[in-house]
Amino acid sequence: MSDGKAPRVFISYAQDSPEHMAQVRGFATLLRRRIGLDVALDQWADHRRLDWSAWATELLTNADFVLVVASPAYRRRADGQAPPDEGRGSQYEAAILRDNLTRNLRAETQRVLPVVLPGRSVEDIPAFLMAYSTTRFEIPEISVRGVAGLLAAITGQGPYPMPERGEWRGGAADDPLSPGTPWVAHSTGVHRAGVLLDGVRYDNSIVFRPREPGGTGFVELALDASYGRFTAVAGVPDDAAEPFQVGRFRVLLDGRPRAETTATLGKPVPVELDVTGTLRLRLEMHRPPALAGSHPAELAWGDPLLV
């Protein structure tokens, strides 16, 4: 709800038995006390004389969500298979819900939520709520965890929100290391640039050119388990001031080394790695201390790609 108020929820059910009524009351109490929803239930309003039809009509019309609790009696009454004097209240409520769905199917499908409590069956959902072609909410246990799926439908906040869409690149592989995509962390001397590795141009590369000798260049990215394969070319740029340097390259997935290689000028090395399920990727490059010489490192990951 955008205005900060708790969603107003009405529970429509049939009084099948004292046990079923107690289960519905426990369910409603959880939603109101533990979740904080503004829940209305007839059992909490029977301490005074009411026009029950007017009471139900107002809630069925104005509640943000209506939870229909599936049970054999509710289905029988909602499907028109019960005699007129059986469960008049649930027959009346189901008739209004059917009318609302006919009036605005799309909106009411999102507002009227069929609920299957523990011990009940999907077959207990009334036919007009289309148990098999629309979403239903099966509650495995009456607990905060048990109502998580239902709460997602009410709040519009599911456990797996859709990520923001990146820039369309005409069907080319997704490249989170390209310009405009932030790094989680990186060392000094590391930047994005185009490089030539053995005569081949790599326009979206990660280049390490520190001002002083020594140290390791690195960059880290959050993958959020969204990719399956990493590819790049590790090498010494063709314009390196010191042509005889040796570069060491390493890939870490979630803090664990998964690939290491050595490259020299004119001999870049392709790197390909399975990154399925990886949360964080770290790319490292440095000159071995014994071979560092007096010049700073000049190393590059050529066009690192994630797909």
UniProtKB/TrEMBL annotation:
InterPro entries linked to this entry: Galactose-bd-like_sf, Glyco_hyd_98_carb-bd, NPCBM_sf, SEFIR_dom, Toll_tir_struct_dom_sf
Domain SEFIR intervals: 6-148
Pfam families in UniProt: NPCBM, SEFIR
Protein origin, superkingdom: Bacteria
Family matches, as SUPFAM superfamilies: Galactose-binding domain-like (SSF49785), Toll/Interleukin receptor TIR domain (SSF52200)
Alphabetical list of PROSITE patterns matching this protein: SEFIR
Record-given protein name: NPCBM/NEW2 domain-containing protein
Organism expressing this protein natively: Amycolatopsis sacchari
